[in-house]
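Researcher: We're teaching a course module on how sequence relates to structure. For the next exercise, students receive a sequence and then see the predicted structure as tokens, so they can try to spot secondary structure elements on their own. Here is the exercise chain.
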Amino acid sequence: MQDILQSLGSGILSVLTPSALLWILLGGLIGTVVGAIPGLGPSCGIALLLPISYSLPHVEGLSLIIAIYLGAMYGGRISSILINTPGDNAAVMTCMDGYPLMKQGKGGKALGISCYSSFIGGMIGIICMTFITPWLAKAALAFGSAETCIVMLFGLVAISMATDSKSVRGLLMVAVGLLIATMGSEYVSGKLRLTFGIPELFDGINFVPAALGLFGFTEVLCGMEARSAASMGKIKVSLRSTLPNGKELKRVTPATFLGTVLGLFVGILPGAGATLATFVSYGAAKKVSRHPEEFGKGSLEGVAAPEAANNACVAGALTPMLAIGIPGSSVAALIMGAFIMQDLQPGPLMFQRTPDIAWAIIAGLYVCNVILLLMNIGLIPVFTWLVRISEKVLYPCVAFLCVVGSFCLQNSMFDVIVMLIFGFLGYFMRKGGYPVAGLLLALILGNDIEQNFRQAMIMSHGSLGIFVASPLCKVFFALTIVCILFPVLKWAFEKWIRKPKLETAAEPGESE
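Model: And here is the predicted structure for the students to work with:
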């Protein structure tokens, strides 16, 4: 306990510098804006700022990226409450009661309560992360190459099933991502694979232009096609109207803590993400509420629970990423890519080799959460105005940043071409209902999985038995098989068990 507090104190001192605070403030502001503007979200914001973070020192660059993530969780509630249009998927449930409150003239109150719940959920989640992450990292030090390979493989499969549990499309995207990750020179022999004689592919596909294409340029293409931005009219929200009173705080606090606990737990699960956390917390808050009939009609508890959950989920998703190198969501996968760009490998060794950076990142979350609380209270009118930005201005700016960010990485037009290819790929994937998260995570983890697989095979002299030798390998191998077979098991259950039961139950009614 004392070592953790000392390390955290050192981390806080390292981020309480003018430069670090400036980048945290900028990241929180950008994150809130991209979270509030429908069609963007944390993935797009982080992807656009990856080239900038690469040019900064470790602490400043990574604090910028993580501040965008946390800020986007704050910002998503603004458009959900004001125009019934969630800034990202994690803010969908906030629309259920936030917009009805807006129509009742209580939009300011809904914004204030959501800000309060976001702060409480985020802060408790970060506190839990502070004490869980070092313990989990120490436990992960026992992982060998086989254990690491199986755990990473489980993370890939879990995310693919969480994003598309009804079919094998998620698994197909993981396979495509792994195939793309094999481009370039082979790990052991150095032989070239899938380079097609193109010199720029000898080192493989760069992560940044791929992320910019999948999350940034894809949003531009989809937004240009939809051209259906919601209109806010002349909505005005004063600062005074956002401040909740003691009675309102007392009423929403239980829902806030419930959402925090559920958000933290769901966030730690690989592939679950903030969207699932908000759905679960909203349903749980409704069940335990003394006024469940108000949910969906304008309940402050219905705003507090999902907002607390999606902010607690940030700490939950970052915990396994920092501790064992397995991101808990697609956004955490992007952040892991930012770590790798900085020549840092998230996982247990990070707390051994670069503990100052690891603890500075955790400390930065505390500072960012406080800054976001003050920012989201004081700048509500500004964010309300920013949501009104016309798509005619927004999408060209995003496209410009995608092109510039890709080119500036290595001053290469080839990276711009890669960004455009992945942008169109992401567009057609979204149109066809194919999830992007599995492809992205496979692209990030593909090389690490291959390296650990080859190291395990060398250690076992070519025997695959090493992947089921230890108890940990057996557990995660079994979980991976269950995830892969889940669509088949679900189909069999519905066809052979559930459907006959429903038909049997319907027969007596039909005979009458």
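Model: If you want an answer key for the exercise: Residues 228-233 have pLDDT under 50 and may be disordered. Strands lie at 184-185, 192-193.
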